[in-house]
Design brief:
five-stranded parallel beta sheet; 7 strands; alpha/beta; 10 helices; two-stranded antiparallel ribbon; single chain
């Protein structure tokens, strides 16, 4: 049943994206300084797929606001509200590293509640979320052992489980770095990637978003195809309705 639910979510996601004009495919990357790291790389700047790109950044999942860069550097914005206001087709959403460093005993519980709510809100708005799994914190980082132990034991497993439960795609930066030889050398301070490491992250994001923009029909399991075709009209109608509703909400907010 869980597998069928995941397949359904994947099919709905593909149909939602198919209703969007490729020339206006909007992508938002939101997160902390690790998102900034890969955003300002040559792969992202070159924008090979000609997406409408936006970036918002946060101090961590529990931060109610962050220093935003959408309109004016230094303004305070709410990261979820900014993503919803942009109304992207895809939001690459990665937080957790700053939260793992927190000394607040409520940090872990708050992370789960807020992250779950944000993913639900994105889904309700018709935004396809891509869950980013935070990269390693190496032994050279200040307090790196504590942060990495929390990420390994709590944050990353929970994020992967949420993505599986909701049928969301994942960019697993942790696995990506650990697959590289001497991966610790790809971080200049144990937390933030070097230029080479940041480009590695950027290319992974680009590949995942490109797969969402142009989904491969072959990735749908064969035994689900008859059921998919039988329900395709209904799902397409749902996707169109959600897309129209989302754009209507955006227009309404802009007029108010």
């Amino acid at each position: 049943m869980a597998h069928r639910t995941s397949v359904l979510a994947s099919v709905v996601l593909a149909l939602l994206l198919a209703t969007t004009d490729a020339s206006s495919f909007v992508v938002v990357a939101t997160g902390d300084s690790l998102t900034n790291s890969y955003w300002y790389t040559d792969p992202m700047r070159s924008n090979p797929h000609e997406w409408d790109l936006h970036r918002v950044a946060s101090g961590g999942m529990r931060a109610p606001a962050y220093v935003g860069w959408i309109e004016h550097k230094g303004d305070v914005h709410d990261y979820e509200a900014d993503v919803l206001a942009i109304a992207p087709d895809v939001a690459v959403f990665m937080l957790g590293t700053n939260d793992a460093y927190s000394s607040d005993p409520n940090a872990w519980g708050d992370f789960q509640v807020i992250m779950s709510d944000v993913l639900t809100d994105f889904e309700s708005a018709g935004i396809a979320a891509v869950v980013g799994i935070p990269p390693p914190v190496t032994s050279t980082a200040a307090n790196g052992q504590l942060a990495e132990s929390r990420l390994s034991a709590m944050y990353r497993p929970w994020l992967r489980a949420q993505a599986e439960l909701r049928g969301l795609p994942v960019v697993d930066f942790d696995a990506l770095f650990r697959a590289q030889p001497d991966f610790e050398t790809l971080f200049f301070d144990g937390v933030h990637p070097t230029e080479e490491g940041a480009e590695l992250m950027a290319n992974a994001v680009i590949d995942e978003v490109a797969a969402l923009e142009n989904p491969d029909p072959a990735t749908v399991p064969a035994f689900t195809l008859p059921w998919t075709l039988a329900t395709g009209g209904v799902l397409l109608g749902m996707g169109l309705a959600r897309t129209l509703r989302r754009h209507g909400e955006v227009l309404k907010r802009r007029r108010s």
